[in-house]
Write a structure and sequence with these properties.
One of its GO terms (molecular function) is ATP binding. The chain is of the alpha/beta class and about 625 residues long. Helices cover about 40% and strands about 15% of the residues. A hairpin with a 2-residue loop joins strand 5 and strand 6 (about 110-120). Bound molecules: adenosine-5'-triphosphate (ATP).
């Protein structure tokens, strides 16, 4: 198939009739070649289904990462997303779905090394006792995240294959496969609704670029090369961030009440017509009285259109009033050119600028943050005096353009942009680590998924932002998907049981109501060490870590990273990572240096520590010179 696609790509321009077709065909074939690109580390199939009953009785099918057909076009391997493949993940003794035998293949570096059969027709079912599953989850992690198509679990599969119209929220303890589920769901939806979603787009939103880099290879490995991946910040960036808010100001700016403050601020610009309008037109002069002008403005306001659309609606209505006068006087219909001229006539534009002025998000926010009266009016009954003071920029820049905006300002600018105009909507958005999204960030996503669905993934216990969610129902409301189901995942595939047990001690102190994780992993170990010499003990721990295969991370409070880096020097396979960016990542061996310092570094330090402790795939070493934080002991 690959050779065929490559040959077509090479000769495509010779068969195409014209340059446009050649370009279209070229792009299509280039994509096809990319989609078929093979990863030599993974075989073409990982399973087989032999049906004993039902419409496929007597047939056997291989299941793999994509459809593979032979030269005659007959299927050799079924895509894991195809309807029949569902049985590979969901059939069981209780509900065999016609499957007599399910076979799983184990492989190492692209070579098949084992297989495992379950004769469902004879009552055999392995579930999580599958050795191939165990091998897969215990394998040393090197490099970026991999797909899990060969071993998706039934409860995960149910989420992956949920209907495209359904938004859902997955509350999952660390390592339960939320990220994996979200990525596979994107791939599944693209398979089922390729054309529609290609047009509207599928987007993956992650917490930071390190995380996006870590997951970047998963979808291409599944043949999906056209999914956008972004942080919320990059998604809504419209001006550069050149300043930082102190936390109290940022907290107010991210609060849901700001939506109403901004709505009022935008609409406060609409005024009342106070004089008639006169428009010269050759030898005529048209006149519209104050009353009809007021009616036009009131009607447009009542229609609930975005502000900028409303302004154009008013312009169009004024022109139609002029048109009616002209028709009455001249007895014929004026041309379209005449209408365009009237729309741009100075008295019409002057009128609009007076009662419905053109706005920019920057202009609106600048005025709000620099004009005390404007802010008081828009925030009346919503923000306290102290909160308003936090918002006033002092000293204010001289103009909107000269303002140094903060990250939180950019979220507000986006909200205003959404009040001014419509935004295009994605077909589906996967939001990872969503517990950290503020209400205002959720609204930014809601604006971009008005006609699409979302998969919300997160863990309330891992919320570290000052505005982190403590209730999924509320996040879903801000996202414009109230009532979407919240589904728990509790079986952990990453963190060994001993490490989960340690991390779970923190849960009661985190003030969120989430089910604790249960680990599938009986291997791995935990080593907690008190020491007088942190650096020496860390060096020792790194030496021990390097005796094993896989990735190693030394995780410490952000402020300690530079010092540790100097003390440890460079090692291949060892990363020194600040606690603030490890969310969503995993390493075979994690060395946590001075938990108390990680906790003390920020208001939600215990949540941060919970994240840090749950990054380990196989081994966790905890080193401390001062006592461990209370809940851990
Ligand atoms: N069904 C599965 N088969 C094999 N491995 C799996 C399966 N589900 C999850 N994993 C593996 O478990 C690890 C954790 O998965 P993932 O990162 O998706 O979890 P998460 O819930 O997003 O974690 P966190 O809360 O820490 O962000 C990954 O290495 C993933 O590949």
């Amino acid at each position: 198939m690959r050779e065929h696609a490559e040959a077509l790509f090479a000769t495509g321009d010779k068969v195409a009739g014209d340059s446009y077709t050649a370009e279209q065909l070229g792009r299509h074939m280039a994509r096809r070649v990319l989609e078929l690109a093979d990863d030599p580390a993974t075989p073409l199939f990982f399973g087989r289904l032999d049906f004993g009953a039902g419409e496929h009785a007597g047939h056997g099918y291989h299941v793999g990462r994509r459809h593979v057909t032979d030269e005659a076009g007959e299927p050799m391997v079924l895509d894991w997303r195809a309807p029949i493949s569902r049985s590979f993940y969901r059939a069981g003794v209780k509900d065999p779905q016609g499957v007599a035998v399910r076979r799983r293949f184990g492989f190492v570096e692209g070579v098949i090394t084992s297989f495992e059969d379950e004769h469902l027709d004879r009552g055999e079912e392995l579930g999580t006792a599958s050795k191939i599953l165990t091998q897969e989850i215990e394998r040393p992690r090197v490099g970026p995240m991999r797909d899990i198509v060969a071993t998706i679990q039934p409860e995960q599969d149910e989420l992956v294959r949920a209907d495209v119209a359904d938004s859902l929220c997955v509350q999952g303890a660390p390592g339960t496969g939320k990220t994996a589920v979200g990525l596979h769901r994107a791939a599944y939806l693209l398979y089922l609704h390729r054309e529609r979603l290609r047009r509207s787009g599928v987007l993956i939103v992650g917490p930071n670029r390190a995380f996006l880099g870590y997951i970047a290879a998963v979808l291409p490995a599944l043949g999906e090369v056209e999914v956008a991946q972004s942080t919320v910040e990059d998604l809504i960036a419209r001006v550069p961030v050149r300043a930082e808010d102190a936390t109290p100001a940022a907290v107010v700016k991210h609060d849901a009440r700001m939506a109403e403050v901004l709505r009022r601020a935008v609409w406060s610009h609409v005024g009342k017509p106070v004089e008639p309008m006169t428009v010269p037109d050759g030898s005529y002069r048209w006149r519209i009285g104050e009353e009809p002008l007021r009616r036009v403005v009131d009607e447009a306001r009542r229609e609930g259109l975005p502000y900028a659309v409303g302004r154009e609606r008013v312009r169009a209505r004024v022109v139609s009033l002029l048109l009616r006068q002209s028709e009455a006087r001249r007895g014929d219909s004026p041309s379209e050119a005449w209408q365009r001229r009237m729309a741009k006539a100075k008295p019409v534009t002057d009128f609009l600028d007076a009662v419905w002025p053109a706005l920019t998000p920057e202009g609106v926010l600048y005025r709000l943050f620099s004009d005390r009266d404007a802010l008081r009016e828009s925030a009346d009954g919503l923000l306290t005096d102290e909160e308003r003071e936090l918002l006033m920029k002092r000293p204010a820049a001289r103009t909107a353009r000269a303002t140094r905006w903060t990250g939180a300002d950019v979220v507000l600018l986006d909200e205003i942009a959404g009040l001014l105009d419509r935004m295009p909507s994605f077909g589906h958005v996967v939001l990872d680590e969503a517990q950290d999204l503020s209400p205002m960030q959720c609204r930014a996503i809601a604006r971009r998924t008005e006609h699409g669905s979302i998969t919300l993934l997160g863990d309330l216990a891992q919320g570290t932002a000052p505005w982190a969610s403590t209730d999924w129902a509320e996040s879903l409301r801000h996202l414009g998907k109230p009532g979407a189901p919240v589904v728990p995942l509790t079986v952990g595939f990453r963190v060994p049981a001993a490490v989960v047990e340690l991390a779970n001690r923190l849960l009661p102190s985190l003030a969120v109501n989430v089910p604790p994780a249960e680990s599938l992993r009986r291997d791995g170990w935990l080593d907690v060490r008190a020491t007088d010499d942190l650096e020496e003990e860390t060096r020792r721990a790194v030496r021990v870590a390097l005796e094993h295969e896989g990735s190693v991370a030394v995780i410490a409070a952000d402020a300690a990273v530079e010092r540790l880096g100097k003390a440890l020097g460079e090692h291949e396979r060892v990363e020194i990572v600040p606690a603030s960016i490890v969310k969503g990542l995993e390493y075979d061996h994690v060395i946590v240096v001075e938990p108390a310092e990680i906790v003390d570094a920020e208001p939600r330090g215990l949540n941060r520590l919970y994240v840090v402790l749950t990054r380990a795939v196989s081994r966790l070493t905890v080193i401390h010179a001062v006592p461990l934080p209370g809940p851990l002991t």
